Amino acid sequence: MKSILRVEVSEVGQPALPAIDVAGGMVIGSGATAQIRLPAKAAQAAVVRIEDGTWTALASVSVDGAAKKQGETGAIADGTTFESGGYTVRVAPAPEGVPPSPPQRTESLARELVRGMLGGAAPTLVIERGPGAGAKRNLPPTDVTMVIGRGDEATWPIADEDLSRTHAELRRGWDGTVLRDLGSKNGTRVDGVRVRESVVLHDGALIELGNVALRYEDPAERHMRPTPAAGVPALPPTRAASSAAFVIAMVIAAISIAGLVWILNS
After folding, report:
1. Tell me: the pLDDT tens digits for 109-146?
2. Which residue from 76, 74, 97 is spatially nearest to 21, judged by alpha carbons?
3. Which DSSP symbol is given to 40?
């Protein structure tokens, strides 16, 4: 059975974010494949690899307050700390019997670290269609519910007769923003799919309720999204691909010539 490690991440001088429990090995860094992702300004793509109770520095990093160079290794103790770019990662064995955290927890950890780097930028909803088009609302803090509907009891009342009085609710949590339909008469759709129970929203999602369309925007998630490098030329086709294309072109030419000969002889 793989050992499980408890990981706590914090910005220096700030309280640690909720811990996550990781089974087996992990990489700490800013790259998209790192299990513990730090903001890009704070760390290289891969800073530390942890495997079988041993850490290996993949870049310059501070370990328990001592500077370490790439290639140095050591054992994971009960509370080994790694520091990079103003962020601290504390790693220790998890309590006995604790299950690994789901992958969404590591994604949430990375997103909240980036959110802090961006000054706490909250997710927002923008009305793209319907009454008050162009209006924007920041989502409330974690674990505070926002209710959308046409009634006065809604947190965000929107004057659309096709909305129920309390149509849908959103709640920001550790695992992202969750949208739930509240048994509305006309239903709720996210990116064209009807919400049966609840759905986790992602940056750019289109929420449709009655005649209203809302765009969900999350600056932290957008910041994490990899972007293609600008100015990188396309790779030339491989020799095999070029040969295949030549053979296909010759077959098409042969068929065309055969058809022309048949027409002329008809």
Report:
1. 888 888 877 777 889 999 999 999 999 999 988 888 99
2. 97
3. T
